[in-house]
Each structure stands twice: as structure tokens, then as C-alpha cells.
Amino acid sequence: MPELPEVETLRCDLSRRIIGEVIESVSVGNRKMVSPAKSFSRLLKGQRITAVNRRGKLLILDVASGLRLHVHLKMTGQLVYRRGRVLVVGGHAILGATAVPNSYTQLLFRFRNKGELYFNDQRQFGYAKILTLAASDEVVQRFGPEPLAKNFTRARLTSQLARRSRTSLKAALLDQSVLAGVGNIYADEICFRAGLRPERQVQSLTQNDQQRLWRSIRAILQRSVRLRGTMRSTYRRDDARDGRYWPYIAVYGRGGKPCRNCGTPLERFRVAGRGTVCCPICQR
């Protein structure tokens, strides 16, 4: 699933292409993925896109009528924007994604400038929902703080973690009401950089632990955003370029391989129902 850095990269890429553009038509292939299903196309037809924002892993498109379109890629969602030779691809990779539409295309937006935006989803868990401003605000208020925002202080992190004091650290990091935008990849990376085992109970963290955790959250996500996210076969970026963060991955997906710090084989197990990797020496 694309996480904060990948969705932020996609937001930036799409902002340069579709802000100010007018939606000529909308074709819905799978009505289960859109809401409201009966009026989805009608509500967006003729609307000008005025902003492309992000909250956690959620893309939010504002249109001139005062409505908002929430787009969540979930596990296998992907957005492809194409106009002539311009190609922007973000999300989960699907074989032959640039040959759109394809068998995974669930939704298509056509713009008056002849650009097209395809929403592909192999497993069809993603969604596109039209909401009023009030309803949209209600949704985003359920998210925890943005970890790269200026107001995300160490004290704010401590306050948020207190809500999940009896859970594992990884479960808390994955909880979008505690912290917005962190998923499995970056949770493992954050724990490693902070020197903390992901299965530790939150209430066992000392003030020094929390300080290291806060610094790690900021450092890992800032670097990944700067490098356009995680580069792996599951992700593709603007103009089909990969993200450049993958070479810096320390533990995620490296179970059994030597720790980059101490050389000890990395442990692989499950925490909070998710595959997890950590170093038995560097993380305590």
C-alpha cells in the first residue's frame, strides 16, 4: 500500500497536471468503488479542479462547486494521468499500467485539455467518494497529526501514544488516528532507526525512547519524500520514474539478511497482524 511519501509524491505530480483543468466526463466501471454511485459522474462533469491535497494516505481533490473528492488507493490502487507524451503514474504497480485503459481500470476522468486520469485497482479495495466540505472535514479530523507538519512536536507524539499505551509500538504507529500516513514499510524503518523493538508496549517507552522515536519519524519520512518514496516493483512514479528511497531501506523486506549496522541476521515475525522485520541487537 502506498504510504505518506508515495501519496505525497503523487499529490505533487498531479497538482502540476490537473489543477485548473475541467472534467469533461467521468466513466465508472465499478460502481462499488464510487460514492454516491448513482450521481457520481453527474456531480463531477464540468467541474474545475481547484486543489489537490493529502491527508495521511488520502488524496483530496477540491472542485469549483465546493465539493471534495476523496481518493484512497488502499492495497492495489493506482492513478495514471496521460496527456500526449506526458505520463504520471502513482500507487501500486500493475503490469502494463501505461497501456490504459486495461482490465484493472475502474474509473476514468477525461479533461477538456484531452488529458485522462485512470483509477486502476487490481483487488478493488480503493475508492473515490464525493463529499461536502463539512463531511470531508469530519473524515479528515479522525486522522492523527501529520508527522511532517510543524506542529508535530515531541509532546504531541507523547500525547498521541498515550491513547494506545497498552498496544505494541508498531500497532500504534499503524493506527491512522494516532499518526497519519505511516504504514508497514515506514513503521519498521522508524522502529529500527529509533533502536526500538516494534513489539514493545507503548507504555514501556521512556522519555529518551520517545525522543528518538519522534526524531526517527521525522527523519525517515522527510528523506523518503525528498527521494520520491520507496522504489520497488510495487511502485511507479511520475513519467514512470521510480522512487529513490529503496536503497536506503534498513529492515523492511530484509528478514534473514544481515543488519546494515551490526551484521546480525534480521528477525522476521508478525506484529499487529503485519509482517515485521527488526534487528535483535540494535533494537531493544
The residue fraction in helices comes out at 25-40%
Span between termini = 27 Å
Quaternary structure annotation = single chain
What gyration radius follows from the Cα positions, in whole Å?
20 Å
**What characterizes the major β-sheet?**
5 strands, antiparallel
Number of helices: 7
Cα shape:
globular
Range of strand content:
15-25%
Strand order of the largest sheet: 1-8-9-6-7
Give a description of the structure.
- The protein has 284 residues and is of the alpha+beta class.
- It has helices spanning 4-18, 40-44, 133-140, 154-161, 169-174, 184-194, 207-226; strands at residues 23-28, 34-35, 49-55, 58-63, 68-72, 77-83, 86-91, 105-111, 116-121, 127-131, 267-271, 274-278.
- The chain has two domains: 4-140, Alpha-Beta Barrel (N-terminal domain of MutM-like DNA repair proteins); 154-228 and 247-278, Helicase, Ruva Protein, domain 3 (Orthogonal Bundle).
- A hairpin with a 2-residue loop joins β11 (267-271) and β12 (274-278).
- It starts with a helix and ends in a 6-residue tail after the last strand.
Main traits of this protein?
284 residues, alpha+beta, N-terminal domain of MutM-like DNA repair proteins, Helicase, Ruva Protein, domain 3, five-stranded mixed sheet, 7 helices
